[in-house]
Design brief:
Shape: globular
CATH class of the largest domain: Alpha Beta
Low-confidence stretches: none
Distance between the termini: 45 Å
Largest sheet: 6 strands, mixed
Structural class: alpha/beta
Order of helices and strands: EEEHEEEHHHHEHEHEEH
CATH topology of the largest domain: Rossmann fold
Number of domains: 2
Length: 262
């Protein structure tokens, strides 16, 4: 489905340049739930923006179904942490979902059935007349998911979508997202810096190093059946292994932050 080959991303600012990503090689399979995991500021969001077509790579290749990604495409939908900013506050829940269908010129007679299907799927069918400001954070994220699924994308690109939610709502959203993924089998690329979140959700986890010149250092299979229990001995061992992998980069990031503050 998605392939990155020798990917590099450089940001130039006059006299200096910053190499954010360097030598990223990755293949993500159709229907896979793939998590990008790494310390804050390592370039996970940059990599996701490149997959979305929002930013071009400086070198290397990005392909989807063997075709070069040269810009944003409706087959790839991006999700953000702040769902409220992504939704139209002046439109109701139902009309937020309808908007994308109108843009894509879905026949009028088909729209209501599609809206009903996805609002039921995310559990918002009884809230269709509400506005985003009347929804909780988790409900706004569910609305963002329903609106995206309604236009039938192939890939969901999710940039720490649950990072601003409280712990209980976040766990509930994990269950909601996994249920939707298992029913639709969309390809999901999910960015997080939370090891537990990655283990609970992913088929595979790509572990990223800290920048500059961040890359994917390991890709780990998560072979445990869902739903997963973090107290399971095998899951706990995987958590510890990932924590050990990330520890040097996290320490380096903290050291650089300390130097910058001084």
């Amino acid at each position: 489905m998605l392939r990155l080959a020798s990917l590099r991303k450089t940001y130039d600012s006059g006299r200096s340049s910053y190499i954010a990503l360097d030598g990223v090689d990755l293949a993500i399979n159709t229907g896979e739930f793939f998590c990008l995991l790494g310390p804050s500021g390592c370039g996970k969001s940059t990599l996701l923006n490149i997959l979305a077509g929002f930013e071009p790579p400086s070198a290397g290749a990005v392909t989807a179904h063997d075709e070069a990604v040269t810009g944003a495409g409706r087959e790839r939908v991006m999700f953000f942490q702040d769902a409220g900013a992504a939704l139209f506050p002046w439109l109701s829940v139902e009309e937020n979902v309808r908007f994308g269908l109108r843009v894509r010129k879905v026949p009028r007679q088909e729209r209501d059935a599609i809206i009903d299907k996805y609002l039921r799927m995310v559990g918002l069918d009884r809230h269709r007349e509400k506005f985003p400001s009347q929804l909780s954070g988790g409900m706004r994220q569910r609305l963002q998911i329903a609106r995206a699924l309604a236009v039938e994308p192939q890939v969901l690109l999710m940039d720490e979508p649950f990072g601003a939610l409280d712990a209980l709502t976040r766990r509930n959203m994990h269950a909601v997202l996994l249920d939707i993924w298992q029913r639709t089998r969309k390809t999901v690329v999910f960015v997080t810096h939370d090891i537990a979140e990655a283990i609970l959700l992913a088929d595979r986890i790509g572990v990223m190093s800290a920048g500059p010149r961040a890359t994917i250092t390991r890709v780990l299979n998560v072979d445990f059946p869902r739903p997963r229990d973090l107290t399971h001995p095998g899951v706990a061992r995987l958590f510890h292994a990932i924590e050990t992998l990330l520890a040097p980069d996290i320490a380096r990031c903290e050291q650089l932050d300390h130097v910058a503050r001084e």
